[in-house]
Write a structure and sequence with these properties.
Layout lengths: L6 H4 L4 E5 L2 H10 L11 E3 L4 E5 L4 H14 L4 E10 L13 E9 L3 E4 L2 E4 L17 E3 L2 H7 L5 E7 L7 H11 L3 E3 L2 H10 L4 E10 L10 H13 L2
Helix pairs in contact: 2-7, 3-6
Length: 237
């Protein structure tokens, strides 16, 4: 199974690998030669150290499923794997499909108020998702030890934006990139990070670009490549 990058962190405990979509779950189970279909919101045993949780798409599914598992079992670490869309940098460049992103933080990029004066996130309005914990903003840091372990998988390090509406226009892609400073966006990471922080469980996020963002007709896609790279990464955990 490769280097088993999480072995030192897990010790004698177990780790929870979290994915949102069934295609992502299939990519992970291929790495473990696991037969059968994982059930949503129920942990599936991958091997003697790791379980897989298929949550379903979006923040509500992700938070509910992870809270259910972390409340019933003790995990030493939670790792969110999956695909993502790449956002433009200041020069308009985006990571191509197949490239990876390693989260140093997970940010709620569209939780807030949109007014004629612009966007204000919920933390600026005084009720951030972790307002009673240190930091109190909309960006939740990933666990440093997990980030160091996952860095062996490669990828551009930075914040990963969590959105409810994916960026299918140039204007929205630029706005999400400006707000978050993130190179990529997905739909679950910050919700999983929030639950993990509340339940005092180390969290990290690693994703592979399946598509660029911006105007839908000009997006570049290679989901097959992204899922193949996801399988390779899962085999090294």
């Amino acid at each position: 199974m490769g280097e088993r990058l999480l072995s030192e962190i897990l010790g004698s405990g177990r780790g929870l690998i979290v994915v949102a979509a069934r295609a992502e779950a299939e990519a992970v189970t291929r790495a473990f030669a696991l037969e059968g279909d994982p059930r949503e919101w129920t942990a599936t045993r991958l091997d003697h150290r790791l379980d897989l949780l298929l949550t379903g798409i979006g923040k509500a599914n992700a938070a509910g499923a992870v809270a259910r598992c972390l409340g019933a079992d003790t995990y030493r670490a939670v790792v969110n794997l999956g695909v993502c869309g790449s956002l433009p940098d200041l020069a308009g460049r985006m990571l191509p499909p197949g490239e990876a992103a390693l989260g140093t933080a997970a940010a709620f990029a569209d939780e807030g108020l949109l007014s004629p004066e612009g966007f204000r996130d919920v933390a600026e309005m005084g009720f951030g998702p972790l307002s009673d914990l240190p930091g109190g903003g909309v960006s939740i840091p990933c666990d440093a030890a997990l980030v160091r372990a996952l860095s062996a998988l490669g990828g551009l390090s930075g914040t990963i934006a969590t959105v409810s509406t994916c960026s299918g226009t140039d204007a929205l892609a630029l706005e999400i990139a400006r707000r978050s400073g993130a190179p990529v966006e997905a739909m679950e990471g910050a919700a999983i990070a929030l639950v993990s922080a509340r339940l005092r469980t180390p969290f990290a996020e690693w994703r592979v670009v399946s598509n660029t963002t911006g105007d839908r007709a000009r997006q570049r896609w290679d989901l097959r490549l992204a899922l193949s790279r996801l399988t390779e990464a899962a085999a090294r955990l």
